[in-house]
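Hi L., both proteins are below.
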Amino acid sequence: MTDTPDVIVVGAGLAGLAAARELTIAGADVVVVDAADQVGGRVRTDVVDGLLLDRGFQVLNPAYPEVRRLLDLPALDLRPLVPGVVAITDAGPRRLADPRRRPQWLSDAMTSDTGSVLSKARLARYVARAVSRTNRGSTASDDLPAGVALHSAGVDSRLVDQVVGPFLSGVFGEVGLTNSRRFMDLVLTSLVNGTPSVPARGMQAVPRQLLDALPDGTVRLGTRVLEAGAGWVRTAEGTVRAHEVIVATDPTTAASLVPGVVVPPGRDLTTWYFVADCPADDLTDGAGVVVVDHRGPLANAVAISNAAPEYAPGGRVLVAASAVGVRDRLEDEHEAREHLARMFGTDTRRWEAVACYPLRYALPAMLPPLSVRRPVRMTDGLIVAGDHRDTASVQGALVSGRRAAHAALSAQRATPSA
C-alpha cells in the first residue's frame, strides 16, 4: 500500500466490509486489510468432500432491518429453516411454534409436557410486548437477565428449562439465560418477523456478496496489521497513513490495537458435523427444524441438509450439532453422538464425523445492563466497529459497520448515503 487512502479498514468481516461499502458509495477511497486468506471473519464456510460446512451453526434472518437494507436477498438464494423448535421430553418429541405460522403443531403446544398452557400464553404475551417495543424502536426500561425476565413474566420453570432455555443457549452461547433481556427481546422479535435461513452456497455467501460490491483491489488479504493509531497502520511492509482508520476486528484483536477498547466476556461454542446413515425423512419428519433436549451436552441440532440440500449434494444427510463451550476431545464427540441418538431417536454410532469446530470467543456476551449502541469513535482518526459495539448478531455487525463509516464521513465533512 503506497497511496494514502481516505480510510483504512482493518478486518474483512461483516462489519469491516459493511463499512467499506458505505464509504465507497459516498465516494471515499477505501482500503480493507485482513490477515486471513478469505473474507468473512467469523462467517466462513468450508467445502469438505462437496459438503458445505459453516464454521459453527449460523443462520441469517432476512427480517433484520440492516440485512434488508444492505444485502441482495434473492441473490443469496435463501433456504429457510422450519420456524419452530422440537423439544425432546420424557414423553417424546413436542413441536412448538407460533400457531399462526405452524397451526398443525398446535396440539403439541396444548400438552403440559413442556409447561402449562397458561405458561405458554404468558410467554406469548411477553413476546408480543417485546415485538411491540422493538418495532417502535424502544427497549425495556429495566434490563434484567433473560431468565429472570421470563420468570417475572410468569413463564414456568418447565417451559424455560425444556424449551426456551435450551433454544436460546445456542443463540447466546451460554447456559443459564444470564444475557440481557433487551438482547433477548431483539432475538425474539427477529424470530417473529422473519424465518432464520441459510444461503444455498453457505453463510460465507454473505461477506462474499459485500466483497463483490466493492471496487477491485479494495480488499488486501494476507496482510496482518501489527499496530494501529489515529490515521495510520503498520504492517510488515511498513506504515501507511490515512485520514481515518476503522478497526473492525474481533474484540480481543481490537483491544490489542486500540487503547481503551474493553473486551466483553466471550462465549465459546463447538459445532460438529455428521453425515447420517439414515434417510432424511427419519430425522424430524424430514424437516429442517432445530431440535433441543436439556438432558445432554448439546444446545441444539438440526438436519441442515433437510432445509438446504445444497449443503450435502448427492442426497446425503448433513446434521449440525452445537454445544456451549470448547468441546474438542474424542469423549466429547462420543457424548454428542449419544445425545443426538436421543434427540433424533436413531442409532448414531455409524454416522460419519466430518468436522468439529471449537470456536473460542464465538460471540461477545450481551450482559445487562446492555447498551446496544456503544461509541465507535475512539479518538480523532481512529474508529472501532464490530458486533461488540452493537449486538452479537449479523444485524449488530452490519449496523456497527455503517455507524463507523458515517463517523468517518462526518469527520471528512462528507454526506453519508441515504
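That was the first. Here is the second:
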Amino acid sequence: MLFDGLARRAFSLGSDGAAIEPKAPVPGKRLKIGLALGGGAARGWAHIGVLRVLEEAGITPDVVAGCSIGAVVGGCYAAGKLGEIETFALSLTKRRVMGLLDFHLSGSGLIAGGRLQKLLEIDLHALRVEHLPIRFATVATELATGHEIWLTRGSLIDALRASYALPGVFDPVRLGGRLLMDGALVNPVPVTVARAFGSDVVICVNLNNDIRLRGTVIPDHGEEESDAPEEAAEEPTPRAGLFSQWLDSPGRRRERRSAPGMATVMIDAFNITQDRISRSRLAGDPPDAMISPKLAAIGLFEFHRAAEAIELGRQAAERALPDIREMLDSALSVPGAARGQAQAVAM
C-alpha cells in the first residue's frame, strides 16, 4: 500500500490509540535483518559490492528498503537480479550513458526516461513489488505536498522510476493519483522504512558520509569590495560528471566567469541537500550498523565508473563486517541490544 507522511520512527497503534513499541528480539530466535540502501546517483553502484560481501558472509536481509539508486539496486537484488544489474553497470561507458539519456524540452525534466525504462523491462517486466521473494519497499516524494511515499505494491519498474526521478533531470512519475519524484528529497537513507516493516536490526549503506560538507552558520556576512561587478571572480573548478559536458561547457564558463556553471550548481545543491537530510534522519532513527564507502572521488553522474564504485563498496563492507557480526551476535544474546544502539561505521 502507499504510505504518506514523514515516518520518523516505526510504531503501531493499539486499540486505545497508544503507541506500541516493536518487540525486542528473543534470544535464540533468528533475527529479522533489514537493509537500507541510500541514494547517491552513480555512487550507488557501490551497493552492488556491499551486497556481494554480505552474501559471501551469509548475511541475508529479510527486508530491503531503497531510495533512488539504492531502490534500483535493492529492487534488482530483491527480485534475484543482482547479477543482471551488475553486468549492466559494468558495461557502461561514457558514450553508452549519453546514449541512454533521451533529452527533451517539453517535459518536467531534461530526460524523459523512456530508454532507461525499456532497459529495466528486459529483466523486470511484469514483476510486482508485493510478489518479490524478499520484502521490498522504496521511497518517493510527492510533488507539491512533499509527502514521503512508501511504494510497497504495484509495478516494480514504476516504483523504481518514481524513486530515482531527480527533479529537473527526470520527469516525475504518476502513480496511484500522485505525481512522484526522487525519494532522496525526504529520506535519503531509509532506515525508518526497513525498521517499520519489522526488522529487528537494520544495516544501512550511506553513500554520502565520505563527502559531508560540514556546513555551519555564518552569522554576520555582507558585501565585500571584491563583489563589485567589474571584478572578475576566479573561474570555478570544473566538476567531474557526464552532465558537465553539455551543462557547463567552456564556452558558457567564459561567458559567465563570475558565476558557476549549471552542472556545478546542480551537483553542489544535491550534495548539500543529501548531506543535511541524511544527517537529520539518521540522527532521529540511527541504524544498528552503517557501511560508508569512500566515494568522494566519484561524481554523481559518472555512471561509467561502476567497477571502481563496486570495489569501494566491497572494501567498505569488508571493513565493517567484523563489527556487523558482533552486533548481530549481541542482538541475539541480549534482548533489546539491537535497537539502534550499536553502530558499525566503515569510514
